[in-house]
Amino acid sequence: MPLDLLELAMPIAVRPAAPVTDEELMRFSERNKPYRIERNKEGEITIMTPVGGIGGNHEFLLAAALARWMDAGHEGKPFGPNTGFNLPD
User: Fold this and answer.
1) Around 73, how many Cα atoms within 13 Å sit in the side-chain half-sphere?
2) Is 41 within a domain?
3) Residues with Cβ < 8 Å from 46, sequence gap 6 or more?
4) Which of 49, 67, 75, 79 is deepest in the core (most CB within 10 A)?
5) Domain assignment of residue 89, yes or no
6) Are the CB atoms for 46 and 38 separated by under 8 Å?
7) What is the number of other CB atoms lying within 10 angstroms of the CB of residue 47?
8) Which pLDDT tens digit goes with each residue over 41-69?
9) Is 78 domain-assigned?
10) What is the 3-state secondary structure (H, E, C) of the chain?
11) Of 26, 52, 30, whose CA–CA distance to 39 is shortest?
Protein backbone atom coordinates (compact mmCIF):
# COMPACT_ATOMS: atom_id res chain seq x y z
CA MET A 1 0.00 0.00 0.00
CA PRO A 2 1.44 3.45 -0.94
CA LEU A 3 2.45 5.83 1.83
CA ASP A 4 -0.01 8.73 2.21
CA LEU A 5 2.16 11.74 3.04
CA LEU A 6 -0.89 13.84 3.93
CA GLU A 7 -1.37 11.86 7.14
CA LEU A 8 2.19 12.39 8.45
CA ALA A 9 3.71 15.31 10.38
CA MET A 10 6.36 17.18 8.38
CA PRO A 11 9.27 17.20 7.92
CA ILE A 12 9.77 13.47 7.50
CA ALA A 13 13.25 11.92 7.59
CA VAL A 14 13.59 8.59 5.77
CA ARG A 15 16.63 6.33 5.83
CA PRO A 16 16.24 3.95 2.85
CA ALA A 17 17.31 0.33 3.30
CA ALA A 18 19.40 0.59 0.13
CA PRO A 19 21.03 3.61 -1.55
CA VAL A 20 18.73 5.61 -3.81
CA THR A 21 20.12 6.64 -7.20
CA ASP A 22 19.74 10.17 -8.55
CA GLU A 23 17.21 8.90 -11.09
CA GLU A 24 15.16 7.13 -8.40
CA LEU A 25 15.17 10.26 -6.26
CA MET A 26 13.97 12.37 -9.19
CA ARG A 27 11.13 9.91 -9.94
CA PHE A 28 10.16 9.86 -6.25
CA SER A 29 10.15 13.68 -6.20
CA GLU A 30 8.02 13.84 -9.36
CA ARG A 31 5.47 11.39 -7.90
CA ASN A 32 5.24 13.36 -4.67
CA LYS A 33 4.73 16.92 -5.86
CA PRO A 34 4.33 19.50 -4.31
CA TYR A 35 6.52 18.24 -1.45
CA ARG A 36 10.16 19.39 -1.26
CA ILE A 37 12.47 16.40 -1.19
CA GLU A 38 16.18 16.43 -0.41
CA ARG A 39 18.86 13.80 0.15
CA ASN A 40 21.87 14.42 2.39
CA LYS A 41 25.37 12.98 2.08
CA GLU A 42 24.43 10.04 4.34
CA GLY A 43 21.63 9.10 1.91
CA GLU A 44 18.84 10.13 4.28
CA ILE A 45 15.85 11.65 2.51
CA THR A 46 13.95 14.58 3.99
CA ILE A 47 10.40 15.31 2.84
CA MET A 48 9.03 18.78 3.59
CA THR A 49 5.82 20.65 2.87
CA PRO A 50 5.86 23.36 0.21
CA VAL A 51 6.86 26.81 1.44
CA GLY A 52 3.95 28.92 2.71
CA GLY A 53 3.14 32.58 2.20
CA ILE A 54 5.67 34.00 4.68
CA GLY A 55 8.48 31.75 3.47
CA GLY A 56 7.58 32.44 -0.16
CA ASN A 57 7.76 36.18 0.52
CA HIS A 58 11.19 35.78 2.15
CA GLU A 59 12.42 33.79 -0.86
CA PHE A 60 11.17 36.52 -3.20
CA LEU A 61 12.80 39.33 -1.21
CA LEU A 62 16.11 37.47 -1.10
CA ALA A 63 15.97 36.82 -4.86
CA ALA A 64 15.21 40.51 -5.51
CA ALA A 65 18.17 41.58 -3.35
CA LEU A 66 20.41 39.12 -5.18
CA ALA A 67 19.21 40.46 -8.55
CA ARG A 68 20.04 44.03 -7.47
CA TRP A 69 23.48 42.88 -6.30
CA MET A 70 24.13 41.20 -9.66
CA ASP A 71 22.86 44.28 -11.54
CA ALA A 72 25.48 46.29 -9.63
CA GLY A 73 28.18 44.37 -11.51
CA HIS A 74 28.92 41.46 -9.21
CA GLU A 75 29.65 38.09 -10.76
CA GLY A 76 27.86 34.85 -10.12
CA LYS A 77 24.98 32.78 -11.33
CA PRO A 78 21.79 32.84 -9.21
CA PHE A 79 19.21 30.07 -9.05
CA GLY A 80 15.65 29.90 -7.76
CA PRO A 81 14.85 28.28 -4.40
CA ASN A 82 13.50 25.09 -6.01
CA THR A 83 16.59 24.38 -8.11
CA GLY A 84 18.03 20.93 -7.46
CA PHE A 85 21.76 20.31 -7.20
CA ASN A 86 23.85 17.19 -6.92
CA LEU A 87 26.70 18.30 -4.64
CA PRO A 88 29.80 16.30 -3.77
CA ASP A 89 29.76 14.54 -0.40
Assistant:
1) 0
2) yes
3) 11, 12, 13, 14, 37, 38, 39, 40
4) 49
5) no
6) yes
7) 19
8) 899 999 998 888 999 999 999 999 999 99
9) no
10) CCCCHHHCCCCEEECCCCCCCHHHHHHHHHHCCCCEEEECCCCCEEEECCCCHHHHHHHHHHHHHHHHHHHCCCCCCCCCCCCCCCCCC
11) 26
Report phi then psi at 58, rounded to 5. Answer: -60, -40
Overall number of domains in the chain: 1
What pTM was estimated for this model as a whole?
0.68
Q: What is the pLDDT of residue 45?
A: 95
Contact assessment for residue 45 and residue 18, using Cβ atoms and an 8 Å cutoff: no
Cα(37)–Cα(13) distance, rounded to whole angstroms?
A: 10
Residue 76 maps to a domain: no
